[in-house]
Amino acid sequence: MRILLVEDDQMIGEPLLDLLRAEGYAVDWVRDGELADTALQSQSYDLALLDLGLPKRDGLSVLSALRARKQRLPVLIATARDALAQRIEGLDAGADDYVLKPFELDELLARIRALLRRASGRAEPVYEHLGVSINPATHEATVDGRPVSLSAREWAVLEPLLARPGLVLSRQQLEEKLYGWNDEISSNAVEVYVHGLRKKLGADLIQNVRGLGYRVPKQ
Amino acid sequence: MMLQKLKQWFQAAPSLRRRLMLFLLAAVSFAALAQGLSSYRTALQEADEIFDYQMQQTAMAMTGGSYPQGLPQELELVIQAWTPEGLQVFRSGVQLPQRAVLGFTNVEAEGRHYRVLSVQRGGQVLQLAQDLAVRQRLAGRLALRTIMPIAIMLPVLMLVVGWVVSRSLAPVERVRRQLAARAADDLAPVQETGLPVEIRPMVGELNSLLGRVQRSYQAQQHFVADAAHELRSPLTALKLQVQALQRAGDEEGRTLAQTRLAAGIERAGHLVEQLLLLARQEAAGDELQPVALDALLRQVMGEQAAAAHARQIDLGLLRADAGNIRGNGDALALLLRNVLGNAIKYTPVGGKVDVSLLYEGSTLRLRVEDSGPGIAPSERERVFDRFYRSPETQGAGGSGLGLAIVHAVAVRHGASIHLDRSVALGGLQFDLCFTKV
Q1: Pairs across A and B, CB distance < 8 A
Q2: Would you call A107 an interface residue with chain B, using a CB distance cutoff of 8 Å?
Q3: Which of A5, A7, A17, A18 to mutate to probe the B interface, most B CBs <10 Å?
Q4: Is pLDDT of B11 > 70?
Q5: Do A102 and A137 fall within a single domain?
Q6: Chain B: nearest CA to A105, how far in angstroms?
Q7: Cβ–Cβ contacts within 10 Å for residue B342, how many?
Q8: pTM value?
Q9: Which of A130, A217, B97, B276 holds its CA 20 to 30 A away from the CA of B50?
Q10: Overall domain count for chain A
Q11: CATH (domain of B398)
């Protein structure tokens, strides 16, 4: 899952970037409103974590422009603006959730998971499909009840595929879930992780659609 | 003893009503007493004249040997008659000493005072005497009759006065009730309409004081709200840095997290320190002493030299006129440190900062110019607001309080600040004008 982190404060952005990456998310970090707007227009994200008090362009303006373009990705506002009117304004401008600084990291992560869950059209917190079950909150995976250990990168490839069974994701789309801007991408990384996943979860779970990409069959 | 107690009672709780009632009571009583005394004296005088005349008439009516029997009882006349040989031939009532002097005299007999009239009638000396108590009784009765209406009216008068005073003081009581019913933070003005003119100026002053307190209270509330808001960011950073430290997988990650955490603590500490400095400057009193600004400037520039050097900034003092101003040395050093620190911080590496201190007529002008980006004219007012960060410098990690502190210190010293574009260096030109001693 790819997340856009919009935060002007370096001391908040740096650890947050690392902590989100440690959770297996591909994260891009921008530090002003203009760059956030550009990134949202040029890249596809699964979620945006948005600060409001930004240099050059206010976060609310970025959010309004995003919704005006009919982009549907979940937006989680994380800000120090705590007044009731500001919280309402933020949600009414198109945000899906609103957390106040200083927030608890675990709560922020849970809210991110909830938003991603809803965005993929589910309510249940655990993915269960064809005998494979994965829990994004605990990062536990089982096959037919038997626990399997997955690396963060394998997780990053599997989760978007399991989130929408039947949907084909291209290699490039999967790469985007794997890497942020500054990460080095090895050309066959997706193939390597899919290979590893097939070994751990069974050869039939992830199907290769030649010339298009990968999918998890619906049934 | 009694007076002292009364005085203590007054001082313990000076009550307008009580005081008014007491003084009025005393004044009316005194007036009644004076009137009674005066009418008593007048009545006595008149009684003297009337009774003397009556005694004369009675004496005239008595011819040798015939003594009046049917005299009015209330006159209480004593009559005695003597022969020229000194033989008493008639006596009614007490024994009076024989008087050779004719006419009216006052004598004392058996402990009482008598008015005595001696006349010669047909070879006899007649003495008519009247107890003076009779006259005094009569005068007393008359005097009492004069005082009586006042005495009867006195309680009524007191009631009326008490009522009028209460009515007059009712607006004061109303103001008291209004104030008593207030919440601690209700500093709205007290209603002045309907107040007596004697009290209105006082309530007016009270309202003006309430207004001043209100403004400073609001300023303080905003300050606290701003401060709480501003502490959110460093707190968020600290929380995340601690989480990152806890979750660091390897030694390298741990070291990085520790470094960041230390920097976060440093920044939070700096913010709190700046907040305290600002609060102190805004609340500071006016203990101002002569301060040699040129010496202070040299000292602070010396302190800042290392920071300038680290950023390869050419920091220089162009001119420093010797000059004293009235001020607080610590506060002025803080001001200089912030102004110079800002110039060094916001001027790009390899830039230049020029400082000068010179007399211009009656003002001493401190000028700091730099080759940095300057401040846009539209922002020159706002940069002195607490926690204001210009969009360009946002994220630079400043507390947003440096210039607010400078402003507070300048206000405290009656100095004016003027921002402009530096002609010589192209960046910001910061002017601070003090009135010299």
Answers
A1: 69
A2: no
A3: A18
A4: no
A5: no
A6: 7
A7: 22
A8: 0.61
A9: B97
A10: 2
A11: 3.30.565.10
